[in-house]
# Entry
Amino acid sequence: MTSPKKLFIKTYGCQMNVYDSERMAEALKGYEQTDTPDDADMILLNTCHIREKAAEKVYSELGRYKPLKEARPDLKIGVAGCVAQAEGAEIMRRQPMVDLVVGPQSYHRLPELEAKASAGEKALDTDFPIDDKFEHLAARPKAARGPTAFLTVQEGCDKFCAFCVVPYTRGAEVSRPVARILTEARDLVARGVREITLLGQNVNAYHGLGETGAEATLAQLIWQLDKIDGLERIRFTTSHPNDMTDDLIEAHGTCAKLMPYLHLPVQSGSDRILKRMNRSHTRDSYLRLIERIRAARPDILISGDFIVGFPEESDQDFADTMDLIREVNYGQAFSFKYSPRPGTPAAERPEVEPALADARLQELQALIAQQQKTIQDSMVGRELDVLFEKPGKLEGQMMGKTGYLHAVHVKDCPLPRGAMARVRIVQSVRNSLAGELITA
Ligand code: 5AD
Ligand code: SF4
# Structure
């Protein structure tokens, strides 16, 4: 038997890319994963297009592999993900050592593309086929896995926020059928997974084919997952405020497996800017929504995304954002300085002075950090369920997460990965909590 070839995947960007990378590794039978490019037979970059100069960064990363390719001409180099989608054949023109380019909607064609690349041909696929790519990916080996997993249920976006490339790189909204998601979830649970995070660029716009033949909402899907024995926790990300349906809000109050954490990006607190961003919600509609969600689940931890320095953002617009943050009180948030993405409407507009945008970003991040710390500190003294994920840095220590997604370290912890236990939170340190097992 020939020994398997080695595959090195480098993953950039969001959790969906992490999920896609796992699926690609499984689809490439005959390869086993390695964590260094040095001995790899294939290097695959799973790229992200959301941050600034994304394509340029990919080209410079590719440049770094040039000596490897020169030393071993049989080494195959592939580019996947959103930069592959956006750049297409241009990648092979600019970097001829690239053998394979595959867009996010074509991963089921990866085995064919790999065969083509191995035969010395250039392999490219950036189509948007209408079929479910995951359905066509090879059946997954039943290897055991860690206690948490991602599961993509929806992909793409029809919202066209003026700053965002996702509708162009991931395409139109598509939801996977409920039955396939349930099969995949049961399989994950059989392999040791106890917490599943449902993924989608617009996950709460989910409208997959239900088992009755009608479309199911995300809440209906969650209630189906709730019935799976051994699955203890359900999360989902990322949501759009306009798709927070009543049944989903209600599920936060009634579904015990649905964790009290919601990532609900608002981007700005100014109606003027929200309108220019084409967000199709207002400051007020967002705030009222948060109120309704908190009425259903008072302890829910809210997280968000913010963009500062969007074209034409005035001091007043920024003050409105800061004010909204004070009103919501975030447990966590991701904030970015606006940067133009070629091909998006906002890229044509005059930019805010970079130094001003930097100053605003710092101010906003300081406020968020303060809120985050206050909320984390407020966990001290509480008794919470912790799902243990892996050993901590210290001998005998285990690290797990609470339902609010705070990391908790427990000293001298006899429990294995995947165990769920009641923990008393005793201290709040920089980026985590310290806890003690509560023994009956
Ligand atoms: N500039 C800055 N931030 C952006 N995001 C998306 N596009 C841009 C851009 N052009 C941010 C948004 C989004 C998150 C994933 O990335 O806040 O919610
Ligand atoms: Fe991008 Fe999210 Fe807006 Fe869709 S809803 S365009 S993914 S920011």
Notes: The pocket of 5'-deoxyadenosine (ligand 1) is lined by residues 50, 163-164, 265, 267, 305, 307, 336, 338-339, 341 (CB under 6 Å). Residues 150 and 197 are 5 Å apart (CA to CA). The longest strand covers residues 383-391. The chain has three domains: 5-125, 134-350, 383-439.
